[in-house]
Amino acid sequence: MKYAGKDATSAYKPIHPDDALEKSLPKEKHLGSIDANAVREIQEADASRKKTRDELRMEQAKLDKPPLKRILTLPDMEVRFEYRSLIPN
C-alpha cells in the first residue's frame, strides 16, 4: 500500500513489461493520461494538510529506527522490533 493514491511508476516499470497494462486492463478501464497540473495541486494539498496522530507516530518511529548497519544479530533485530513496535502512543 506504499503507493496507494500516488504515482507508482518508478516502482512499477522495473518489474513489468511496457505493455502490461494494455494486455491486462480492459479498454473501458483506460481513463487516459494524468494532467500534470492536477497532480501538482494534489501534492501541494497533501503537503499542506495536518497530519494525523498515527502519521506523526510513524514518522517518529522511522526517525528513531537505528541504521541497518547497527543491526548485526537476531537479538539486535528483536530489540529493535520490541522498541516502539506497532503500539500507538
What does this structure look like?
This protein is mainly α and 89 residues long. Helices cover 48% and strands 0% of the residues. The protein is built from 5 helices and no strands. The longest helix has 13 residues, at 36-48.
Quick gist of this model?
By secondary structure, the chain is mostly helical. Helices cover 48% and strands 0% of the residues. The chain is flat.
Question: What profile does the largest beta sheet have?
Answer: none
**Helix/strand class:** mainly alpha
Tell the overall outline. Answer: flat
Our count of domains comes out at 1
Question: Roughly how many Å is the radius of gyration?
Answer: 19 Å
What's the helical proportion of residues?
40-55%
N/C terminus separation: 23 Å
Average residue pLDDT: 82
Number of distinct beta strands: 0
SSE string, helix = H, strand = E? HHHHH
